[in-house]
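Folds vary. Our protein:
___
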Amino acid sequence: MLSRKPKHKALIMSDDRRLRPVTLEVDTGFVVQHGSSRAWQLTGGAVFPERRTRLPYLLLHERHDCPYSTAKHRWEKHEEGAVNQLARQSIRKEFNELPKKAIAQKAASAFRLAIAGLTLTVALMAIVVLISSGQFKFPGM
């Protein structure tokens, strides 16, 4: 039920032109950095291979919301319609998963209740057996 999200390597450029390598989670149409609550939209043609290792990277800027396109040699711009469509798809997906999550939570709570009930029954039976055999006596009796 809990699936791991794919990750993508990226280079984040700061205002003073320093590059910092990071690994970001890929969400629906975005790469996300949860620590700083930032996200960048994924666009076609924005992935480039690193020189030595040939691993695919994205070039991101701290102040831009889209990556640098090596094909167009400029920073990409996002379209409001695409962002709204991705948001609608994400919300629809969450609403579709709600019944599954509710069933899983109900099953987990029923399992915990069954374990607690069995533990209590076994403990009560052990006390009854000890009292009936005379090995357990109440103080003062």
Notes: Residues 7-78 form one domain. Helices lie at 80-133. Residues 54 and 63 are 26 Å apart (CA to CA).
